[in-house]
Amino acid sequence: MPEFPGGMPALMEFIRKNLRHDKAEKKERVIIQIVVDKKGNATNPVVLRSTNPALDEEALRIVSLMPKWKPGRQAGKNRNVKFVFPVAFEPSVRNTN
């Protein structure tokens, strides 16, 4: 199984820090599938589930910013491996003062 540097908590923090919440009107979630290639690059992102095309675009943008992953291994060799994860959106809180 491939691993984001620092594991799943670090992946969720990376997404949280880089996400532009202004595209969400309500709590929504986009499910993304990537292929972590033999060199650790996040490639071939695909939206598996979504309700809002603008959020799809933002989730795919996040993938393009990702650092290298630790590639998946099988029989002692790096392999291309599919990985699925959610990108959660919440509306940004706007100051009305």
Can you tell me about this structure?
- There is one protein chain.
- The protein has 97 residues and is α+β, with helices and mostly antiparallel strands.
- It has one domain (7-89): Fusion Protein Consisting Of Minor Coat Protein, Glycine Rich Linker, Tola, And A His Tag, Chain: A, Domain 2 (2-Layer Sandwich), CATH 3.30.1150.
- It has helices spanning 7-18, 53-65; strands at residues 28-36, 42-49, 72-74, 77-79, 81-89.
- The strands form two sheets. Strands 2-1-5 form a three-stranded antiparallel beta sheet, covered by helices on one side. A two-stranded antiparallel ribbon has the order 3-4.
- A hairpin with a 5-residue loop joins strand 1 (28-36) and strand 2 (42-49).
- The longest helix is centred in the middle third of the chain and has 13 residues, at 53-65.
- The termini are far apart.
Write a short abstract of this structure:
With 97 residues, the chain is α+β, with helices and mostly antiparallel strands. It has two helices and five strands. Strands 2-1-5 form a three-stranded antiparallel β-sheet, covered by helices on one side. The chain has a two-stranded antiparallel sheet with strand order 3-4.
Mean pLDDT rating: 91
* Main β-sheet description: 3 strands, antiparallel
Percent of residues in helices:
25-40%
Domain unit count = 1
Q: What is the level-2 CATH architecture name? A: 2-Layer Sandwich
Spans where pLDDT lies below 50 across 5 or more residues:
none
